[in-house]
Amino acid sequence: MTGRIRKSCGAVKSSEAGPGKGREKGKRELSSHGTAEFPCAGYAFPVSAQSPVPWHWHEEMEIIGLKSGEIKVLVPGKEFHLKAGGCIVINSNVPHSAEGEGEGELRSIVFHPLLAAGTWESVFAKKYITPLTEEERFLACMGEAGGEGRQESGKNRELAEHFWRAFQGLEKAETGFEFTVREELSRICLLLYQELGIGWEQHEYEPGHDSVRIRKMLGFIHSHYASGLTLSEIAASAGIGERECLRCFQRSIRTPPVQYLLKYRIMQGAAMLLAEPEKSIAQVAADCGFDSPSNFSMMFRRFYGQAPREYRRGLKGGRRVGAEKLQPACPPGD
Fold first, then answer.
1. At what angle do helices 308-316 and 257-275 cross, to 10 degrees?
2. What average pLDDT values come out for the chain (334 residues) when binned by 10 residues?
3. Kind and range of the H or E run holding 18
4. Residue 262: its pLDDT value, please?
5. Counted domains in the chain
6. Do the domain assignments include residue 265?
7. Is the dihedral of CA 156, 157, 158, 162 positive or negative?
8. Which residues constitute the domain of residue 131?
């Protein structure tokens, strides 16, 4: 397949594709971003409180920029409020999610660290990229807008400027855009490396430890959400007790595990209504782990503000906006 910019959902079936929409069941994101030759892809998609980006993680680093509106981005133990024009850089393998505070338009770049490093044996990898991606204190960093009391600084603004130049390069895909994108993303990595070197705040808990636990428990929920999960089973998946499970969820994603399970089931139900229109509401309810269609419909209405049947009719009527994946050209024959 050739072309300077492809707009497609790639391996993701949902028309609302984007980072987080193609996760390997129970683990990390499965979708590839870009190509082996150029491991980088850009995305444009809407986000709102009713259409959030679910918790997910991937080996690649991700930079989320906000074109319009306001959004809340969550990483374990931390919450960022992003305004139009700003961006946030999320480290490799860090669980994260996002939801709109109203309606918003996201722009995202997902790239493998090797795009900047070249190879793991290079000086760029050994001196800069590997220490950056393995730094447990670095979960995410805001560009332009301050977060949690952090004031705007020249470096904050620089991060956002580099991001938008990189995204524009991906979007236009003019001759040599790969050089532009790689340069801008490399500069972002260097800025983050320098920021880490001048003293980042210490957390009251160990983010790396909680991050490992929450990934295990979220993965367990994602794999078994259709069955009758208990708090004890969720906790056991990370080798901890129920009380520590509750504390870990509160520290990491600020949502109780049972509430997260319910929300995840509802979101899976919404995806099934879109992807499998031949299924009855009762079938969708059962496949999502609900004991009755009426319970599913009641919970669905609380979350989406309409009944599943109305939601499905809206999808058929084309009123929901699908995501556009902006991806660089593929080599001939791909």
1. 40
2. 29 39 44 77 85 85 93 88 92 88 88 92 90 85 58 73 95 94 96 71 48 88 91 94 92 87 90 89 94 92 87 60 34 32
3. none
4. 92
5. 1
6. no
7. positive
8. 6-200+323-327
Q: Using CA atoms, how far apart are residues 162 and 66, in angstroms rounded to an integer?
A: 14
Residue 40 corresponds to which amino acid? Answer: C
Q: Which residues contact 291 (CB under 8 A, 6 or more apart)?
A: none
Query: SS3 for 251-288, per residue?
Result: HHCCCCHHHHHHHHHHHHHHHHHHHCCCCCHHHHHHHC
Q: Name residue 7's beta-bridge partners.
A: 326
Structure confidence at residue 313 (pLDDT): 82
Cα–Cα dist 262/68, whole Å: 29
Q: What is the pTM of this model?
A: 0.67
H-helix or E-strand containing 143? strand 140-143
Task: Look at residue 313 and tell me if it is in a domain.
Answer: no
What CATH number does residue 110 fall under? 2.60.120.10
Q: Which amino acid is at 89?
A: V
pLDDT for the residue numbered 226: 92
Would you say residue 146 lies in a domain?
A: yes
